[in-house]
């Protein structure tokens, strides 16, 4: 934990490192018990360079944590049906414990239909409707990775959402909606804002916890922040810029995540953790199934 004069910086980079170390120990334990490593299958449709970089990063982190990865690159012309066939094949393959379909897929592909082809037991990226329902009901299941990372950051800094007012800016299926669901399941009073929300600054001023997931650089201004609030910046824009005007917000926040080094590193660490969870669950108590 690093103190500035105004706010505590929530260090996701350090937290993610210790989190990945624990996951690596558990992956080694899985290998000792079963004679094989946990395995994450990654699927990338098309050749978007940013998506290719994300997938490579995930594979590298897997390797360092003792998790195998198996990559399926597919051409940009892949149809929804072809993609679903590939994902169903991975869902049925007993050697694969977790499946990650890199988002976004090309526009002509029905991403929701492709996500739903992932066996919920292997949905380690938390993208299926099954996982969303588990998050919303506060039941065991896989978290959407960035929202799960945000909750783990809050826990690590002893920020209990229960009884607090949380304002989430953004309602995307991979970020705004699931983080709202997780905060509600943890007894926060949650307002989810979006592009049609009137007077957003006034809504944000009510928040004990602000989650910015907008995709617009420095969109959330410092004078929107209630003094002492916890400010979580999930944004990641070109030039390593978040969705919060950090220099302004840090003057009023009680705690704040930097960009980079805040939410970002937690995302992959949750993916790895959940891949190992999936491997243990699929192996069963005696490690044989
Ligand atoms: P997205 O799908 O584009 O969603 C953006 C959301 O912001 C939408 O719900 C949109 O509202 C809302 N929004 C846009 N303009 C707004 C405005 N003027 N006022 C209020 N709300 C507005 O983006 P995303 O995938 O959720 O990503 C959000 C950010 O998080 C991006 O910076 C992205 O790079 C980052 N991200 C980081 C990680 C990580 O690992 N750290 C992972 C994923 C994403 P409507 O629904 O009304 O359009």
UniProtKB/TrEMBL annotation:
Residues holding NADP(+): 170-172
Keyword terms: Amino-acid biosynthesis, Histidine biosynthesis, Hydrolase, Methionine biosynthesis, Multifunctional enzyme, NADP, One-carbon metabolism, Oxidoreductase, Purine biosynthesis
Residue runs in coiled coils: none
Domain Tetrahydrofolate dehydrogenase/cyclohydrolase NAD(P)-binding span(s) in chain numbering: 144-282
Any Pfam family hit: THF_DHG_CYH
InterPro entries: Aminoacid_DH-like_N_sf, NAD(P)-bd_dom_sf, THF_DH/CycHdrlase, THF_DH/CycHdrlase_cat_dom, THF_DH/CycHdrlase_CS, THF_DH/CycHdrlase_NAD-bd_dom
Record domain Tetrahydrofolate dehydrogenase/cyclohydrolase catalytic: where: 10-125
Enzyme Commission number: 1.5.1.5, 3.5.4.9
Pathway entry: One-carbon metabolism; tetrahydrofolate interconversion
Top-level taxon in the UniProt lineage: Bacteria
Enzymatic reactions: (6R)-5,10-methenyltetrahydrofolate + H2O = (6R)-10-formyltetrahydrofolate + H(+); (6R)-5,10-methylene-5,6,7,8-tetrahydrofolate + NADP(+) = (6R)-5,10-methenyltetrahydrofolate + NADPH
Keyword NADP: yes
Record PANTHER family: C-1-TETRAHYDROFOLATE SYNTHASE, CYTOPLASMIC, C-1-TETRAHYDROFOLATE SYNTHASE, CYTOPLASMIC-RELATED
Known partners and oligomeric status: Homodimer.
Protein family: Belongs to the tetrahydrofolate dehydrogenase/cyclohydrolase family.
Job of this protein: Catalyzes the oxidation of 5,10-methylenetetrahydrofolate to 5,10-methenyltetrahydrofolate and then the hydrolysis of 5,10-methenyltetrahydrofolate to 10-formyltetrahydrofolate.
Protein name: Bifunctional protein FolD
Species of the source: Saccharopolyspora rosea
Gene name, Swiss-Prot/TrEMBL: folD
């Amino acid at each position: 934990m690093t103190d500035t004069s105004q706010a505590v910086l929530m260090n996701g980079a350090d937290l993610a490192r210790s989190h990945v170390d624990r996951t690596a120990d558990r992956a080694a334990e899985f290998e000792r018990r079963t004679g094989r490593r946990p395995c994450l299958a990654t699927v990338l449709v098309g050749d978007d360079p940013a998506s290719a970089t994300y997938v490579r990063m995930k594979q590298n982190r897997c390797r360092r944590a003792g998790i195998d990865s198996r990559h399926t690159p597919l051409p940009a012309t892949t149809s929804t049906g072809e993609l679903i066939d590939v994902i169903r094949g991975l869902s049925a393959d007993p050697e694969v414990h977790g499946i990650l379909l890199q988002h976004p897929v090309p526009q002509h592909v029905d991403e929701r239909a492709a996500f739903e082809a992932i066996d919920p037991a292997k949905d380690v990226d938390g993208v299926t409707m099954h996982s969303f329902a588990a998050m919303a009901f506060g039941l065991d299941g896989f978290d959407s990775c960035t929202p799960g990372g945000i909750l783990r950051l809050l826990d690590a800094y002893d920020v209990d959402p229960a009884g607090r007012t949380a304002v989430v800016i953004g309602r995307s299926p991979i970020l705004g909606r699931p983080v709202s669901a997780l905060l509600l399941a943890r007894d926060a009073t949650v307002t989810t804002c979006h592009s049609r929300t009137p007077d957003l600054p006034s809504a944000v001023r009510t928040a004990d916890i602000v989650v910015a997931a907008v995709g617009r650089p420095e969109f959330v201004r410092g004078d929107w922040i209630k003094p002492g609030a916890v400010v979580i910046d999930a944004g990641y824009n070109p030039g390593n810029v978040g969705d919060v005007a950090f220099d302004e917000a840090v003057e009023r926040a009680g705690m704040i995540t930097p960009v980079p080094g805040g939410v970002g590193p937690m995302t992959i660490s949750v993916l790895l953790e959940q891949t190992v969870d999936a491997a243990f669950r699929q192996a069963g108590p005696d490690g044989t199934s």
